[in-house]
Design brief:
Elements lengths: L1 E14 L3 E8 L3 E7 L20 E7 L8 E7 L10 H21 L4 H16 L6 H13 L14 E3 L4 E3 L7 E3 H11 L13 H18 L9 H8 L1
Antiparallel strand pairs: 1-2, 1-4, 2-3, 4-5, 6-7, 6-8
Helix pairs in contact: 1-3, 1-6, 2-3, 3-5, 4-5
């Protein structure tokens, strides 16, 4: 069955001499893997690997087979005027890191989710079109939890709030028993919650504090997603923003 859908590229694995398995989150089908034969070929015909940069936004016509482990592309086209492969190094590193996170999270999500897809498509488009992206990954990770079911309970924020408990996703005045964010890290965490993407450049977070905040957010993911592992691209991300 032929099906047209928007999709977001999450990752690739080389298979054999010239084939590629591409993991994607599609608007119509959710998380799917595709086999691209001859992706490394120099011939102009066929689907080339250049389409499959981390978090590339594509429109595809798919030869969909409901019970197959791997699907096939019939046609592909970029949907963003600034494809990821043409962006500068810092932004590419952010895309790579977030693609790693999303590959884990969306694999668990599995089925299609139109609201989640629209959020991802809109925010990735925003990233590709803007220059100051130093705080983007932090805001993105927090915003994503809204769709994962563990967004922070902002109604529990009080003037004397001193801790954010990871397990309950609530803010407290007194130190809780479980893992908690506190101090300067908590201050930046709350500021990110109250700031939209267009204004994240106004938040001035020191490099060391940014690393600590990212570490805390990833711990938050690990508490709520049992299979979540620390992304391998973190050292590259931290070095680039140092």
């Amino acid at each position: 069955m032929l099906l047209k859908t928007r999709l977001i590229v999450l990752g690739t694995i080389k298979q054999g001499e010239g084939n590629l398995v591409v993991r994607c989150f599609t608007e119509a089908l959710g998380y799917e893997s595709f086999l691209v034969k001859g992706a490394f070929s120099k011939r102009k015909s066929g689907v080339h690997r250049a389409y499959f940069q981390p978090l590339a936004l594509l429109e595809a016509e798919i030869n969909h087979r409901p019970n197959a482990n791997l699907q096939y592309f019939k046609e592909l086209a970029f949907l963003d005027p600034h494809p990821p492969g043409n962006t500068e190094v810092k932004k590419q590193t952010v895309l790579l890191f977030l693609a790693e996170v999303l590959d884990q999270v969306l694999r668990e999500e599995g089925a299609s989710n139109s609201e989640l897809f629209e959020f991802l498509f809109t925010t990735i488009s925003w990233l590709l079109l803007h220059e100051d992206v130093g705080n983007f990954h932090l805001k993105f990770l927090i915003a994503l939890t809204r769709f994962m079911g563990f967004y922070p309970n902002t109604t529990s924020i009080m003037p004397n709030t001193a801790y954010f408990e990871l397990e309950t996703a609530c803010f407290h005045a007194q130190k809780p028993v479980g893992f908690a964010i506190h101090g300067n890290t908590l201050e930046h965490f709350i500021n990110l919650l109250g700031t939209n993407f267009d204004n994240i450049h106004t938040l001035h977070i020191q490099i060391t504090q940014k690393h600590q905040l990212l570490e805390a957010i990833l711990k938050y993911y690990q508490v709520h997603l049992q299979r979540f592992e620390t992304p391998k691209s973190i050292p590259i991300l931290q070095q680039l923003f140092a």
